[in-house]
Amino acid sequence: MTDILMPALSPTMEEGTLAKWTVKVGDAIKAGDVIAEIETDKATMEVEAVDDGVMAEILVPAGTEAVKVNAVIARLQADGEASLSKGAALPVASDAIVPATKPAPNLTPAQAPAPALVAAAKSPAGGARIFASPLAKRLAAAKGVALANLTGTGPHGRIIAADVEAAKAGVAAPRATPAAVVSATPAPPRQVQSLEQMGIAPGSYDLVPLDGMRKTIARRMTDSFRDIPHFPLTMDLEIDRLLEARARINTALEARKIKVSVNDILIKAAAAALKVVPEANASYTPEGIALHHHADVAVAVAIDGGLITPIIRAAENRSLADISVVMKDLAERARSRKLKPDEFQGGTFSLSNLGMFGIKSFASIINEPQGCILSIGAGEKRPVVRGDALAVATVMTVTLTCDHRVVDGAIGSRWLAAFKGFVEDPVTLLA
Amino acid sequence: MALDFDLIVIGSGPGGYVAAIRAAQLGLKTAIVERENLGGICLNWGCIPTKALLKSAEVYEKLGHLDDYGLSAEKRGFDFAKVVARSRGVAKQLNGGVGFLMKKNKIEVIEGAAGLEKGNPAPKVVVDLKAGGTRTVQAKSVILATGARAKIIPAIGLAPDGERIWTYREAMTASTMPASLLVIGSGAIGIEFASFYRALGADVTVIEAMDRILPVEDGEVSAAAQKAFEKRGLKFRVGAKVTKLAKTGSGVSLTLEAGGTSETLSAERAIVAVGIEGNVEGLGLEALGVKLDRGHITTDDHGGTGIPGLFAIGDVAGPPWLAHKASHEGIHCVEHIAGRAPVKIKSPIPGCTYAQPQVASVGLTEQAAKAQGRAVKIGRFPFRVNGKAIASGEVEGFVKTLYDAETGALVGAHLIGAEVTEMIQGFVLAMTLEATEAEVMATVFPHPTMSEAMHEATLDAYGQVIHI
Q1: Structurally, what CATH architecture does the domain formed by B154-274 represent?
Q2: Which of A171, A214, B84, B251 is the most exposed place for a label (fewest CB within 10 A)?
Q3: Residue in chain B nearest A135 by alpha carbon
Q4: pLDDT-based confidence at residue B299 (cuts at 50, 70, 90)
């Protein structure tokens, strides 16, 4: 019998929601077959079988949230292995629950009854069972380290004493991102009063369960806003020439059925400005400031239930037509949650545009570990002063939020000046 | 040059042949080079044949106590040549077993002495074939598992001549039983031979340079072992520095210094068991720039030598010089090579000495814990109050446990007594699983067994012992 483990779909993934099984017990499976769908932090991914065999047991029912990476989710019986006598020989371990009825595929997690029972029986935290050695459990209790935050390095991902020691000492942190290093030595959790304690009557609201994306947004934004010394720099840009250029470009591209958006040009301009001011294309690390070789521009895309930031890699080297095509594809797949982790993790600069909602200006929260994020407001006709005369121009207000540990005011200002130059005279993008 | 194999293992001892089988299981095309006998020292000249000799000695000793059990027999006796022949037969059987395992796993056995030359992606292996000629083979990875041999110190005469001054090798294939014997070194090898020859009636004196015998063991175990051996007529000189070992007309003469005075001992034969040194010569390691430390290859956490594609495991990679440590490292190293993430190599390594009585231990001694400044809770339980031990007439010895005073982690266990080498794995398993005193206490030990003393020694560490 082969254990099928909850896969880590990205280096930083710790848990995910087992959204759906696409096979059932008794199905014959070949290596490479899709057997389940997993909803991670920000995407839905398909899980492929590694071995051939027959699906013998499904241990984690569809819809179970917060399944730890490396937890056993199913068992595969190799070809030729003695088969279990039907029903009678299923394991009776209390954490090996097989759903009595197959949940409807579109049942939302909160409605699925089986996982809730499992969680209540095994773990008050609501997650899958955490495997840890007796000594690791005792050390964790003594030092106040939460086992749920650790990634085990023992057999089958079991948490061993060394993992607890490492977390305690703040070295070899279980997760690699800077945000994770911070949370590996957790500050005492903020005391949050319940809604009831704060005067909101029970029953007066609906509770939407936190999905993986919502939890990730909450955690990453809280960490970033609390831990990064950030400041905004705001500038007005005139975009009449940009709009004119866009019209001409789109006429030229009509035959290829490509339509470049204002945002596509801003991505290109941002990347070009990052090449002019490379100090703004930077990340703070304890070892030093990382100056990135490429402008990998992450673009915030609003999707159902949250947002995601697919990345235009090496945007400085791409043509506008290319950026437009790639962005369209990424945005579409983002909305259907089909992005691969490497398509939304690892950008060096972010861009968020709320212009279409009529927002005039706003300051985004830094997307760690990036040094800057640019917030773009609506382009609108405004009165401007030319010489001593009043004129009308199409103006857009942009705000650059900077991580002061790497991007000081002067650097941010130089970047904005470079960006303004490209936007207000788009021909210079060709230089 | 095309690659002949994925992996070549040099040396077919318990490190090498186990590594080769694991590699074959993982789908690596594997070859193993052996210059002498499949199975290495362990199977042919070490662990296994000595256990055969010691079993003969144990049965013979038991026959001397038949009356204790209400039994009698005519005339106890032995045929030394048959005792040795049985031991050789056991070795031969297992040697054939390794050959079968190689064939079953489709591992090519190359008979000859291997040397290394610069190569890519791993050093080339040039084998001086037993059948004559040479064969050069190239693999992705090479594991050195060449083992070790008895250390000799010719300057003071501690060099075997194969006739009167022996290493383990001659000591286990002697043609006649010596009437008197000097054993230099009281580690496991020295003590096992001393115990064997003493049981058959030789006059045996063991000389140890440290201040106690079995110096790697816990101090209490060393003391109890010396007492038990002396009861059987073994003689000891501890804290004794050998200044000269020389051949005389009929045997050997040994001069030692202890406590400022000099003494000369004589006997028919002497066994040199003062340590082990790695088989690092003739492999071409210098030319490759392989780093050595006191006669052993320096390796990283996965057996890597720092030379691309070249790994080393087992005795040649340093102490403890134990077969099971070599096998464990071999499997770890192969899984690493195959791209698996092996479980940490740092599993606790038990040590066993198969004398009468037996000694077995794992983890820290009380002395080592103290030296580390680690506070420990210590429990002890003697076999003389254990029901099964009394019923068996084997009440010598005790179990001693050490638990970390702060965390309750089992950090060491030390046993002396009958069959304790078969019991120690219980503590090894507990340590590997990172058990604390709570899990050991909650474990049900079957009654009546000598293993109940393991439970009691744990209870004793926490003031909860039942049967004292």
Answers
A1: 3-Layer(bba) Sandwich (3.50)
A2: A171
A3: B434
A4: very high
- A404 is an active site residue: yes
pLDDT in tens, A178-231: 333 333 344 444 556 778 778 888 888 888 888 888 888 888 899 999 999 999
CA A383 to chain centre: 40
Q: How far is B20 from chain A (nearest CA, A)?
A: 22
Taking an 8 Å cut-off on Cβ atoms, the answer to whether B409 and A135 are in contact is: yes
Q: Can you name the CATH fold of B357-461?
A: Enolase-like; domain 1 (3.30.390)
Spatial separation of the C-alpha atoms in residues B325 and A155, rounded to whole Å: 19
Query: Which residues in chain B have their CB less than 8 angstroms from residue A159's CB?
Result: none
What is the CATH class of B5-149+277-337? Answer: alpha beta
pLDDT in tens, B423-435: 999 999 999 999 9
Question: Amino acid identity, residue B66?
Answer: L
Residue A112 has pLDDT above 90, yes or no: no
Q: Which of these is catalytic: B65, B296, B302, B447?
A: B447
Contact A374, A400 (CB under 8 A): yes
Domain ranges in chain A are 2-109, 228-430
Q: Are B208 and B240 in contact (CB under 8 A)?
A: yes
Whether pTM > 0.90 for this model: the answer is no
CA distance B328 to chain A (A): 15
From chain A residues 344-363, the ones with a CB under 8 A of any chain B CB are none
Given the residues A230, A292, A293, A404, select the one marked as catalytic. Answer: A404
Quote the mean pLDDT of chain A.
81
Angle at A11 between CA A7 and CA A13, to 5 degrees: 60
Tell me the residue type at A388.
D
Among A134, A154, A155, beta carbon nearest to B436 = A134
Q: Can you give the pLDDT at residue B343?
A: 64
Contact at CB, A160 and B434, closer than 8 angstroms:
yes
